[in-house]
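Example S7 (structure tokens).
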């Protein structure tokens, strides 16, 4: 048994499982609760139900410190801090569905020895509403703190163990539980942002909204570059050298996806609207992102004319490399749009095929990046998996019916592609 305080994690989806494994790596016994029986069995058997680099090794290394329960009582018996990591998906109105958070609150006892630590992404004001709800339930002795996560899929383990900052929102006059949450992260030697709960909630939404804005901005610049004969890669490099701007998230492509950016941008826009403020900038960010996914179709029609009966190969399906996450993936929109134009779609992804089958109907899934090219009228790079950059261009030309590559992530060298006898279309490149 570790001499460090045990930690409770409620909800072992992607955020919860990564957090639990990393806290175990820091020496804590972690008691995890989830209501998904199949997922719990998988975890108890030592298997990891998601693809995240380094997570499997971390769980295997610290397996004795990780406990997976289907009831909350064992977690409460061992841990004082309960990190809530449940889903908060958008509802039809655009507001966050907090029913899973509410379910956790309803189960908790009135205890001054326990505290909720909200790691789920929630609307600004959730902390105040939870405190009010706890009062209504006669559970106002429970502590509360906000500790938003800033993990990137594909590098989540490293992001947790080597963060650029940790944000903790709490009532600091009470000491507990904010100070104890801060102590948990002290071994990571990173900047610690101590703030109020509402500001902590806003920091998460504002951070993701700003990054999404950078992506939509550079995509707009890319579209203008195509009209004016400039190269968006060169433009982004030149912009990125300005420390006020930075190079990160200035990669033009087919748009952002995943579980965070689309949801958080929409959530912040909705919050602003609910308060009476029209967040015009975020309206444009969302619109640009949706249109960007469809520009690929225009590039294909530019060379092929009508897409009726054409066979289009998609390289990559996950919303980004190093994950099997298909949430808001550009491939889903693109595949549907291509089929709507009458095209046949073949696709390949090294890890996301099973999840993709649930969302993309009518597409043929292939066994390799080369097999998907056979007799295709064009290939579209949708996800920048490194292996796609290593494909033999001569072999690609031999397999394709029409030697057309639409590089939706600008990962190939355009001159090399053209030298191999292929037609190249990038994003914001001429």
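Recovered sequence:
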């Amino acid at each position: 048994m570790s001499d460090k305080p045990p930690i409770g994690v409620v909800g072992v989806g992607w955020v919860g499982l990564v957090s639990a494994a990393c806290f175990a790596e820091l020496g804590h016994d972690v008691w995890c609760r989830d209501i998904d029986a199949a997922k719990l069995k998988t975890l108890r058997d030592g298997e990891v139900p998601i693809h995240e680099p380094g997570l499997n090794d971390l769980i295997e290394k610290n397996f004795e410190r990780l406990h997976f329960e289907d009831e909350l009582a064992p977690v409460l018996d061992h841990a004082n801090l309960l990190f809530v990591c449940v889903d908060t998906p958008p509802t039809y109105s655009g507001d966050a569905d907090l029913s899973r958070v509410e379910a956790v609150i309803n189960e908790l006892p009135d205890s001054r020895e326990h505290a909720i630590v909200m790691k789920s992404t929630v609307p600004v004001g959730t902390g105040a509403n939870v405190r009010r709800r706890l009062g209504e339930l006669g559970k106002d002795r429970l502590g509360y703190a906000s500790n938003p996560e800033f993990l990137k899929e594909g590098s989540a383990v490293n992001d947790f163990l080597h963060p650029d900052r940790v944000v903790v929102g709490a009532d600091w006059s009470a000491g507990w539980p904010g100070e104890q949450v801060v102590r948990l992260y002290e071994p990571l030697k990173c900047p610690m942002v101590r703030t109020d709960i509402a500001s902590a909630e806003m920091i998460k939404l504002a951070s993701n909204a700003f990054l999404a804005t950078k992506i939509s901005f550079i995509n707009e610049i890319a579209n203008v570059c195509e009209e004016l004969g400039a190269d968006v890669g060169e433009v982004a490099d030149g912009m990125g050298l300005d420390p006020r701007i930075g190079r990160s998230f200035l990669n033009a492509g087919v748009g952002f996806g995943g579980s965070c950016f689309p949801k958080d941008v929409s959530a912040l826009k909705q919050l602003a609207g609910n308060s009476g403020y029209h967040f015009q900038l975020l309206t444009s960010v969302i619109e640009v992102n949706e249109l960007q996914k469809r520009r690929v179709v225009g590039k294909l029609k530019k060379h092929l004319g009508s897409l009726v009966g054409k066979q289009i190969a998609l390289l990559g399906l996950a919303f980004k490399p190093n994950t099997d996450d298909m949430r808001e993936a550009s491939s889903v929109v693109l595949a549907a749009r291509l089929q709507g134009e009458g095209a046949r779609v073949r696709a390949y992804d090294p890890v996301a095929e099973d999840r993709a089958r649930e969302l993309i109907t009518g597409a043929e899934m292939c066994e390799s990046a080369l097999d998907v090219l056979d007799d295709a009228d064009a290939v579209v790079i949708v996800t920048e998996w490194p292996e796609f950059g290593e494909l033999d261009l001569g072999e690609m030309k031999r397999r394709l019916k029409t030697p057309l590559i639409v590089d939706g992530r600008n990962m190939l060298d355009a001159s090399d592609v053209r030298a191999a006898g292929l037609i190249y279309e990038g994003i914001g490149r001429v």
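Notes on this example. The CA atoms of residues 38 and 328 lie 25 Å apart.
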